[in-house]
Every structure is written in C-alpha cells, then in structure tokens.
Amino acid sequence: MIHIEQLRLKFPGxxxxxxxxxxxxxxxxxxxxxxxPSGCGKSTLLQVMAGIIPRSLDVPMKAKKLHIPKRVGYVFxxxxxxxxxxxxxEEMAFVLExxxxxxxxxxxxxxxxxxxxxxxxxxxHVPIQTLSGGMKQRLAIASVLALxxxxxxxxxxxxxxxxxxxxxxxxxxxxxxxxxxxxxxxHKIDHVLDFVERIILFNEHGDIIADGPTHVVFSTYRSxxxxxxxxxxxxxxxxxxxxxxxxxxxxxxxxxxxxxxxxFRQKEEKIAxxxxxxxxxxxxxxxxxxxxGKSTLLQxxxxxxxxxxDMYWQQQPLAxxxxxYDHIAFVFQNPEFQFVTNRVDDELAYASRLEKRPEHxxxxxxxxxxxxxxxxxxxxxHPYQLSVGQxxxxxxxxxxxxxxxxxxxxxxxxxxxxxxxxALLEWLEAYRQQGKAIVMVTHDxxxxxxxxxxxxxxENGKLVADEPVxxxxxxxxxxx
Amino acid sequence: MRWNIEYKETWLHQANPTAxxxxxxxxxxxxxxxxxxxxxxxxxxxxxxxxxxxxxxxMKHVLLLFMPFLFIFISTSSSMILxxxxxxxxxxxxxxxxxxxxxxxxxxLGFRTLLFAIFGLMFALTTKPVLLFYSLMQQAKLKPKYAxxxxxxxxxxxxxxxxFQTVHQALxxxxxxxxxxxxxxxxxxxxxxxxxxxxxxxxxxxxxxxxEAKGFTNERTRTFYYEVTFxxxxxxxxxxxxxxxxVGYYMADAFPYVAIKDVR
Lengths: 480, 264
What we know:
heterodimer, A: 480 residues, alpha/beta, Rossmann fold, 6-stranded mixed beta sheet, 15 helices, 20 strands, 32% helix, globular, B: 264 residues, mainly alpha, 2 strands, 71% helix, transmembrane helix (chain B), membrane (chain B), ABC/ECF_trnsptr_transmembrane (chain B), Energy-coupling factor transport system permease protein (chain B), transmembrane (chain B)
C-alpha cells in the first residue's frame, strides 16, 4: 500500500536534514501509529505518505522508491483550518464537487456521510462556526470519507480537543476506519493504543528506532516514550508529584472577595455569581462543560468584559481596573497573543521596565526568570520561534510579576505534552506555596484531583458547586 | 458570536448575483455622467423606495446602515457648498463663500454619493457571498481557484475579529494596550498586527493544503452544489430599474425641482 525506500528530506533553510535514508512500508488494512518526540518529523513523513509533500507543500525530497496510494484522506490537527466553506452542507459539497459528483446525488451522499460519523444536526445547513471542536473534526472525517480513500492519515486529530471531543472523535474513527489502512500521528495515545496494531518509533533525529507490534514496542521502549513527554495510559501513576500538593497553606488570608458579579457579552448576561472569596494559598480548578461560562468567569474577574458588581482586594474596594492588574495576573490559552516584544529577554523585562525599575535590577530579574523557566538558550530568539512548551513557559514567566498574588489561567495545559504539563504544574505548586492563589480553568479531571484544593463547577453561567478537593494519597512508583 | 442581522428573503435576494452585478455596475458609470440634479434626485427617491420595500431587512436596521452614508452625504455636499466657486453669491464670510452654483453642485455631489451607497448596500445586503461566487463560476466563468480562495477568506474574517478581541484583552492585562507618542503608537499597531497576521497566514496556508488534500485541483471539471441560473427575477429587476431610470429622467425634464439642468 505504502512503500518508501531511503527517503531524504530537508526543509529549505534548516541546518540539518530531517530524514536520512528512512525506509518503511505499510500493508493494506494495517493500523499504524507513528510515535516520537516533537520535531522528529512524524507529521512531515505523514504528509509525504499522503502526497501533500511535494504536491501542495514544496519541500526538497528524494527517495529511491516511493509508492504512495492515489486516494488519501487526511485529517488535520486544527479544526478551524480545514474548511473553506461557511456551512456544513457546503463544505461536504465542496469535496463532492471536486470529485465531479452530479448535483442530484449530493444531498443523499451528504446525509449518508454525516450519519456515518454520527454528526446529528437539526439541519445540514448549519454554520460550521457553531459546532464544537469535536464536531468539527467529525465533519472533517466525514468530508474525507467522501473521497473514498484507500488510506486515512490522521495528523493529531484530537490535539486541540477537550476530553469529551477526543473520545467521540476516536470512537467515530474506530468505526469508520475499521477496514481501511490508517496511519496516525498522535501525542495523546490513551485512546489510540487499543486501535493500532503497529508502532513505528522515531528518535529526535528522525531515525526509526523501533518498528513492531504495539505491545512489544510499547513495553520495550516505555521509558524512552515517557521521556519524550507523550501522554500514554498510566502516565499519572508513574508521575511523582510535589509533596506539598494539596496541602493547606498556613496563612490563608482573604485575597479577593466578589459580591454579585455579573458579566456581559453584547448586552447578554453570560455569568452571574452571588459571591466568591479567594484565599491565599488556594488552587481553585474551574470546571464545567464547553460554553458553560468558565472563561467568561475569568474574564469577568479581570474585568476584561463589561461587568457589574463589587470587588474587594484584601478587604479594600477596588478603585479602578488598573489596580486589578497590579494584583491579578492572567495567562491566556494561546500564548502568542500575549507577547509584546520581539525577543525572549525583552519579553521578560517588559513588566519591570513598565514599573521604571533601574536597568540593573531588570537585568537581574531577567536572568533569574531565564534560569527558572529554562529559557536561557532561547533568550535572543523571537517568542514566535519557540516550541509550544517554551511559548507556554514564556507567557507565564512574562505575565507574572512580584506584585501579583492571584494568577488566573485559561486552560494552560491545553495542547501541551506530558512533560511540559508536569513542569508547569510543578511551577504553579511552588508559586502557590509562596502564599499566592491560582484559579485555573481545566478539562483535565486528573489535574483537579491531584493538584487543586478547591473546585468551582460552572453551569449555564452560574456557580453550581464550590467544594474543597480532598487530597489524594501519595502514590509512589508506577503500576505495571 | 453573532454578526448576522435577521432578514426575510425577497425577490431581490432571488435575483442572480451576476445579473445584479451586470445591472448595478453600469449604473455607477451612468451616475457619474449625469449632471442634472433633478434626475439624480428622482433616481435617489426611486431606488430608495425599491431598497426600503424589498431589501427584506427591518426598517430599523436599514436606517442604521444608512447613517454613515448620510454623514458622507452631508460632508461631501457641505464642503462643496461652503468653499466652491461660482458667480451668484448668496453668502460670504471669510473663507466661506456660498454661491448658487456651488450650492447645487454640492447637493448634486451629495445625491451621487447617496445613490452609490444605495446600490452598494442593495447588492451587499441581498447577495450571499457563497451564491455570488457560485454564480460567477457558472455565469461569468470565474476560475474555481479564485472563487474558493475568496470564500475561504470570508470564513477567516469572523475568526480574525474574535482573535482581535482576545489580543486586545491580552495586551490590556499586560498593560501594553496603550502607548504614547508616534513611535509608541506605531509599536502598538505592530503589537496587534503581528499576532493577528501570523495566525491568519498560518491558517490560510493550512486551509489551502487541506483544500488540495480534499481533491481541489484545477484539472477536473467540477459539478456545482448550487445551480445558479438567470431567471424571471432578473427580468423583474431589469424592468423595475429601467422604469425608475427612464421615468426619473423624463420627470426631471417635465417637473424639475430646481431650474439648473447642468451643474458644471
């Protein structure tokens, strides 16, 4: 089905070749997972297999033999970057038009495809923008199925989805791909392991270091896989969390008190909270379904949207919004939006320079932060040149200053690999131990049960539960 | 987020987008070569009535959309009226010099912009972008490559608007949403533009790759999900426009509002 012999590939401008003499072949009907550290070239290889390189992306490459299937269905990572039409039916029709399917047959085919991915909609003419991430990915799968592909290539299809979306997408994929050849690149492999029968493992130089049945590769290379920050099942069981986690903080004075807070979006009331108090040393996890108002709550606490209600900082009423930014820091989901300078070290110095602190103090502060967040080697780079994990670290490091005592985070671990997630959680725990408080929107139940001291559940713009989280017993070592 | 206003589909929505373009575009040229203010006033009345009655939008929304154009009407005509040249002086005070000629020329200019606005709004409010491009592909033989690129771009706009708000919030939190001085303002523009553009460029490239991965090439002959044809509504539109233009033109001769027939 797929046969590649001695593939060499180098991105223009890159120092090193991505692949040197990589060979592999995949038989009809096989389900294969490509696994390896980020930057090892798994996605690039997938694009070569799908013919996207060099047909759509012109990357210099050479192979002694290259046999790739004619019809390939490719599902991409970003749900917002794979549709060109505004409505569900139009997007499906776009593929059918490409295939030259007569107009009379389209409606029936569209309905059939949507049914296969279990995308139940009140009507096919629904704006794609109103769909959730998981539904968008299922729509992408449906439109790809219309191509009648010999091979399905899945390029981290659930990397940007929440747990619920991830589950439904994999359920759908398992159903529709049962009798097809499937090649998968994925970091969160919990849902994938029982589906694939073969793993091809890469090292950071893009060489294949293992290729064999799933359970063999997985058990032989377990520690290598763990080191690469891949989310594999039981990763939490082998993780040793800081001993201080969930331990109550000694001096729990009141930081923020909120009375009848209401937040609005375009005149519509989106969140209404009777009262809330945040104490020093708390780690509050904000949970709830998509669209319940979790992010809106954070934005209201920060007065980023129009709000009504009274806010008190350490028992004092807050005179203006600017004061709020002195006490509370906010870390956004997409770190790129928060960068304001062109270099990592300038980014870290920005807050101190705003306070007009003497330049030697600023320099010391920057050195300290570079050290603390492991960004020393990247100090002269543009923030956009960093890896996903480095961007996350930089955005946290740059947002938080000494004057802040409360940190709001909107899904900070989203799209991060296991290694980066644990590093961030450990930093947050150390931060909490300094008598600061953390309010964090998350979908990850495990983070809640392992790190949070309190949980808020948001439903339809209301706080329906505000409860302490019982510390979990400390589990050492792994199971199996 | 909702960016749409509600509307009812009327026969103006049913008319073929290409036909609308073919009928409206020449009007822009014709209007420029009409120098009789009476004609323009009649046409403005006629097309305003057509637009108000059949746009399918609530009067409240239509009037709201008209506001900026009324402002342009006042500003273009007033500058012409107050500072134009002419022989019959009505009023003079320092730089301000109102003459009969400049007054009518200003009013004429104002109606011209108003007519442009009406045609522009009438087209934009009664034409779905998707159908416009389907029609252009089918009637005007526009290459699918261009049509779908535009449609993909249209999809990016609301996403960009949402991202703009997020960037604004993010900068506000870091106290980087305000700046003093010219250099500061320039820096500020960069702060907004770079994240927005870099996101859009990457997204655009990904969309392009994914479109090709879905079999979008220039080679095959394609079918169309929406079959857009010329029809009776195009004839209606042609007849209505023809009547307004011709009747307006002769009425201007027979029952003029102002004596001037040529503002030049």
